[in-house]
Amino acid sequence: MKAFYQTDAGKVRSHNEDSVTIVKNASGEHLMIVADGMGGHRAGEIASSMVVTQIGTRFSNLSTIGSKMDAVKWLKENVDEVNDSILKYGEEHTESMGLGTTVVMALLTKDFLIFVNIGDSSGFVLKNGKLFKVTKDHTLVNLLLESGEISPKDAENHPQKNILMKALGAAEKIDMDIFDVELTVDGIFLCSDGLTNMLTKEQIEKVLNDGDLTLEEQVNKLIMKSNTRGGTDNITIAYLRKEV
């Protein structure tokens, strides 16, 4: 396995509220995390950093995550705990009230691959040169799209495109999506919406299939392309792929 992650403030935002990591435990199991923070007074980066630091550190200290059921239980418990931490921080720091963050995670062991999602950061798998989106965005626009109230074309430039229906720090009870994905994939790709709002799935796929670039060069090229197209948001990528 080869892994690389990178985050960039983009061309418009004054600072970066995204956080990212890829960690490995004693058994060689991988956990990938991308969190896209929100909130005033730099509170967004506090919320996203809490997710990455708390969950990432706990995972790296494990000898093994155990069975698939153990993994799901562990992920739920840790997401609940970090959600409580974010809510508590907001209560104790009134200037940061309303802080929150999206999170998308992928947990890979020799026996299973699980994705977790809250919000509109995205999780993909790469298989036979094709990029497939695993996660579903928790946005108002996606809700309208799935109910048939708007068309895919309407969704692209909808004025309420950025309204989130779910985020860590938004409520005491958090329901996260869990996806059980087959292991026969060539790569796992997570990103914040700063990338997917600038580049289409096909444009991302094309860069990931460029065999002349290293994994690090592919990630950096995607960030560069997003910035060339405007870089209107923070851009964050975590990418893990099987060695060719």
N-to-C CA distance: 9 Å
SSE string: EEEHHEEEEEHHEEHHHE
Structural class, please? alpha+beta
Shape: globular
Give the biggest sheet. 6 strands, antiparallel
Helix percent band: 25-40%
The average pLDDT value, as a whole number, equals: 94
Number of helices: 7
Oligomer: single chain
Strands, count:
11
- Proportion of strand residues: 25-35%
What is the radius of gyration?
Answer: 17 Å
Extract low-pLDDT stretches: none
Summarize the structure in words.
The protein starts with a strand and ends with a strand. The protein is globular, with a radius of gyration of 17 Å. It has seven helices and eleven strands. Strands 2, 3, 4, 5, 6 and 9 form a six-stranded antiparallel sheet that branches. It has a five-stranded antiparallel sheet with strand order 1-11-10-7-8. A hairpin with a 5-residue loop joins strand 2 (18-24) and strand 3. Helix content is 33%, strand content 26%. It has helices at residues 43-60, 68-92, 140-146, 152-156, 193-196, 201-208, 215-228, and strands at residues 2-8, 18-24, 30-38, 100-101, 103-108, 113-118, 122-127, 130-133, 177-181, 187-191, 235-241.
SSE order and pairing:
Blueprint: E1 2-8, E2 18-24, E3 30-38, H1 43-60, H2 68-92, E4 100-101, E5 103-108, E6 113-118, E7 122-127, E8 130-133, H3 140-146, H4 152-156, E9 177-181, E10 187-191, H5 193-196, H6 201-208, H7 215-228, E11 235-241
Antiparallel strand pairs: 1-11, 2-3, 3-4, 3-5, 5-6, 6-9, 7-8, 7-10, 10-11
Helix pairs in contact: 1-2
